[in-house]
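Question:
Now give any protein.
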Amino acid sequence: MQWDDLRVFLAVARDESLSGAGRRLRIDPATVGRRIARLEEQIGTTLFAKSPQGYALTDAGERLLDHALRAEQAVLAASEEIAGQASRLSGQIRIGAPDGVANFLLPQVCAAIQDDNPELEIQIVALPRLFNLSRREADMAVTVSAPSAGRLLVQKITDYRLHLAASQDYLDRHGPIPSVAALRDHRMIGYIPDMIFDKELDYLNDLGGGRVPLASNSVVVQFHWLRQGGGVGIVHDFALPSAPDLRRILTDQLSLTRSFHLVRHADDARLERMNRFAALLSDGLRQEVARLEAALDKMSQASDA
């Protein structure tokens, strides 16, 4: 079994299609199909169950996946060691993240990293769900809860704050909100309850639950509802400097703190390139959260003066 065959196998396993694997490898999908058929013939078993929905790993394919991932890590580690560590990062790195951090933090942090490493390609996958790092849906992921299962490297990046907020227009139309209990008389904006993929995002539990007339699985949709005067909801403090029309409310009665974690596959610890990028990303996110929260505090002090 050749590494080049395993490379094609990994691409199909990750993209679950010949066309996606072809784009990843920059080869024709028909060639990808022939390579997979040849590999299956060589080892005498079917690796993928083919259907109109795509290519799903069989039990044999799942067993081969573990070996292929280890082979990939060995090849990457050997390449780095032989070539030596360049002063600048290069290649492609894909980050998975929930859409709050993906929209309000990662763009500026990653742009700054890429400024210093022009040969580096950074991809941000913004999805409101957990990522499967074993299948390389992403090279690393920013999460709110720290996973406890799997062969993963988990490091805390930073804490961040959240508060209730509403637009000035909404407050002008509906009047001041004197207490958390008074929220029952206001339209709440939040997550779709059965689509909350992380218990740490179930913010409205801190308010005693209740009905959510305007709900989305996307924090950015919620953010824009708030900006349009749709109601009251929980907002990341680091997002508020970009929306001067929103006002924090009841800050003395409700303040939430959550944490960001960087999650990587354990085998990546041997890759200096990934270690360097992870350090840059963590430092950048930590500094950006601190900068934006400090800017918000300064804005709040100025408005209270």
